[in-house]
Amino acid sequence: MDVAHPRLRVGITYNLRKDFSSRKDLPTDSFEEFDSEETIDAIREVLQNDGHQVFKLGGGIDLLDRLRSLSLDIVFNIAEGMGGRNREAHIPALLEFLNIPYTGSDPLTLSLTLDKAMAKKVVSSEGVPTPGFKKIETLNDLQNLNLHYPLFVKLCYEGSSKGVRLDSKISDPAHLREKVTWLLETYDSPVLVEEFVNGPEFTVGIIGNSEPMVLGVMQIEIKGSPPEDAIYSLEIKREWEEKVRYHCPPLISVELKNRIEEVALRAYRALDCRDVSRVDIRVGSDGVPYFLEINPLPGLSPVYGDLPIMARHMGWEYSRLVKTIFQHALQRYGLGGNG
Ligand SMILES: Nc1ncnc2c1ncn2[C@@H]1O[C@H](COP(=O)(O)OP(=O)(O)OP(=O)(O)O)[C@@H](O)[C@H]1O
Ligand SMILES: [Mg+2]
Predict the structure, then answer these.
(1) Is domain 129-195 classified as CATH 3.40.50.1980?
(2) Is 272 left (phi over 0), alpha (psi -120 to 50) or beta?
(3) Model's pTM, two decimal places?
């Protein structure tokens, strides 16, 4: 046990995929971003081995009573929430209401980043490059689009590549209308139509607060696809072991890597992220790293989470990743922890 900080009462808040996956009336990827019990247990083990008393709380309706009765010092929050663009903010807002510290970003940032269009408006106002886009709520919004093909269509309020398929790259208006119609009818989210960025893809891990640091820049190579056709889609993420090659550090010049890090850090700051986030970036044929989106609740599966994979490539054990995130949160609240 680490004696540098006191034993704390720590709750973990989360949503498990298995609690929802019996709903056969919904699309196959409806619960894609929820976690597995193994992930929660892996986080619990790290915190317990560090000497803390850990309570697995879930994210259901009985949470309020448990939070009120447990006298927790802090919550390690990875709950994705249910329904709408504020869902990731629900539990952090509840924790703020109850005056309980928690890891990660606050409700404003979690809502702002879940709505990809809003996040793009904020980062572009700070000069961060991001592809031209339009938010589509009805098919009428497809008129006067004023964007250059090829385009990319995805859900405005979703993550984990929900709704993103290998055919999400669009080269003509008829196909665009067809795809947007399917997404609007199938999912509970507006659609984001965005200009396609056709160069290599990277995901950047960032940790910290007043001086956030880049944990790593990981290049995502889809085996057998040249960068201009590569899409890190649902199909690919589900079969990542066969279909993806991760390069961390990436196979690019130091100069390009620095520019990617700069874009990621500027987006992190522009959106007021806390403790940790993962930023998705694609480099255009003009050599510019474009911000695609940011994930302030990055998946922490020790097996297939992009951030833990990146950490592993950078020589960090899973426990170090979890502890570092936790320590940054403790430090923000003056509860000890020195990063
Ligand atoms: N404008 C774009 N141009 C080219 N490819 C794109 C664009 N937007 C998204 N993509 C591709 O689609 C993938 C998923 O998009 P994005 O990262 O925005 O969605 P997500 O579902 O929120 O992802 P995550 O799993 O990281 O939460 C990207 O990793 C990238 O491969
Ligand atoms: Mg992404």
Answers:
(1) no
(2) left
(3) 0.94
pLDDT single digits (tens) 64-101: 999 999 999 999 999 999 888 999 999 999 999 999 99
**For residue 195, how far is its CA from the centre of ligand 2 (angstroms)?**
15
User: Which atom in ligand 1 lies closest to the alpha carbon of residue 278?
Assistant: 26
Q: What angle do CA 141, 143, 148 make, to 5 degrees?
A: 105
Superfamily of domain 201-330: ATP-grasp fold, B domain (3.30.470.20)
Ligand 1 centre distance from Cα of residue 193 (Å): 12
Please tell me which residue, 153 or 167, carries the higher pLDDT value: 153
Q: Which atom of ligand 1 is closest in space to residue 168's alpha carbon?
A: 12
Digit-coded pLDDT (tens) for 262-281: 999 999 999 999 999 999 99
Query: According to CATH, where is 3.30.1490.20 located in the chain?
Result: 129-195
CATH of domain 9-104: 3.40.50.20
Ligand 1 is surrounded, with C-beta below 6 A, by 131, 152, 154, 158-162, 164, 194, 196-197, 201, 231-232, 280, 282, 292-293, 295
Domain with CATH 3.40.50.20 in the chain: 9-104
- How long is the chain? 339
Q: Which ligand is nearest to the CA of 232?
A: 1
Residue nearest to atom 27 of ligand 1 (CA): 159
* Structural contact between residues 243 and 166, judged by C-beta atoms closer than 8 angstroms: no
Q: Helix 116-125 and helix 254-270: axis angle, to 10°?
A: 110
